[in-house]
Amino acid sequence: MTTPEFFRAEISAWLRENRPPEPDILLPESFMEVGTDQQFDYLRAWQRKVYEAGYLGMAWPAAYGGGGQPQAMQDIVNAEMARQKVPFLPNTIGLNWAGPLILAIGTEAEKQRYIRGILNAEDIWCQGFSEPDQGSDLANTQTRATRDGDHYILNGSKIWTSLGSYAKYMILLARTNPEEKRYGGLSYFLVPMQTPGIETQPIRKLTGEYGFTQTFFRDARIPVDCLMGREGEGWKIAMMTLTFERGAAGGQAGGVSRVALGVGDAVELARTARRDGHPALEDPMIRDQLVRFMIEDQGDRLCAARGKIPALCSERPLAIPLSQKLRTSEHRRRMLQFALSLQGANAARWVGDANAFDGGKWQRAYFNSFSSTIGGGTSQIQANIVGERVLGLPKD
After folding, report:
1. Number of domains in the chain
2. What pLDDT does residue 1 have?
3. Where are the alpha helices (DSSP H) in 316-360?
4. Residues identified as active-site
């Protein structure tokens, strides 16, 4: 029987030997910044290589292309990939949201049809939840899915459909019953993106990068079997999807979904940046703040383990899973903002400036960090969820 220590050494060696060479292009930090064919092809090939080596989807059922092994083995792989900062796996929505959802409530036919393609990156997935005119009011979805015999006809628009230009499938929330307002008339679909009448338009971000798209549906006809569950169950299925997206539920395939600058990188920056002619790290106020970030980072890392020990979370058992997305996304944003403050006037420099710290990657990471504070429910929405469902505060 393979011990955890032996397996960790095995995956560590494999990653060192098989890490893809550094490309001559600027790689994105997450799937939300993949905007060129070169970036996409590089990352897709890397995911396929990890899967074919047996290190992705290790805990997913073997019958659908997974490894059928204990989750603990995938956890070791994930930790080692994060430690070595190998490239992230681009099929984030498939691996972490759509795949776990299909395995949890999908039909046998859906599992056979979709899971293997998610793992080997053959089938890229995107998400069709947010709409241009509805903001965070997901229950007010206006995209229509009208039944017409053996098909549904889609009309409307979705926005922030990351990787939409490369996706083969979309998880879509649409209104099948316009007479029912809010939650009741919504249904959930697994939509083939190559359907005539579906078009995507890339959205240029503040950083100059792409990744986000707006998706338009103009009389797009999809088969009835694209419906997941039954008509009218869309809200329930969407909420289950969000538990995977926000990290409140497990079952994800594994790998890393982001290659991010961390607190350790900020400490190294503080050694290089100067304050009054001295390394910024010599300033006790700066050291104090860095230690606070380190404590917060370690606390977030330990929360998953803590949530499995009833004695440590019995008073408010929902506090850890429901706060995870808010805690980690805001921690990252604040840490990156602090890292910029260490640079003084140099914080105004951008990627490509020869005088920018670390090639301007801190500035780029800071602006990109806002994506995580919005996607999956804004920080304001997340705070409301914690207030209402954890603290029991009234809605008004």
Report:
1. 3
2. 59
3. 319-341
4. 245
